Amino acid sequence: LNGTTIMDTYLTFVNRGFEHAVRDMILKSVPEQHSVRIEDVGEYPQLLKRNDEAEDHNPKREETNRQTRSASFGDYLRIKMQDFQSTRNKRQRVADGSSKKQQTRDGTVASLVGTMKPEAPGGPDLSLGYNQEKQPVWAIPGNFRGLVWLKISTSLEAHEVHRRWRFLGPLIALVKFQDSPAMDFGEDQTLENACRQLKEVTVRAEHHDEYDMVKAFRLWQRHASECWHDYWEDGEEDEMGELASPEVVVQPPFRYRLSCVRAESKKKHQFSRQELLTKAAEFLVPETDENKAVTDCHNWKVDLNHYNFELVLFIRPHCVAIGISLKPYQYLGSKGFSPGQACPPDISPPFLSGKVLSKGIIRLRPSNSQILIHLANLQPGDVVVDPCVGIGTIPIECGKNNQSVLALGGDLILTPESLGLGSVASDYLQKARKFNLRGGASRQSNLVGLLAWDACSMPLRVGCVDVVVSDLPFGQTCLSSAKLNQILPLLFSELGRVLRRGSGRCVLLCGSYLPILDAMCVVNQASLESKGDLVWRLPCQAIFPVNIGGLMAWVVQVERANGGSVQLDNQKARILKLVKRRDQLRQQKESESRKGKDLSSNTRRKILQS
Question: Whole-model pTM?
Answer without folding.
Answer: 0.87
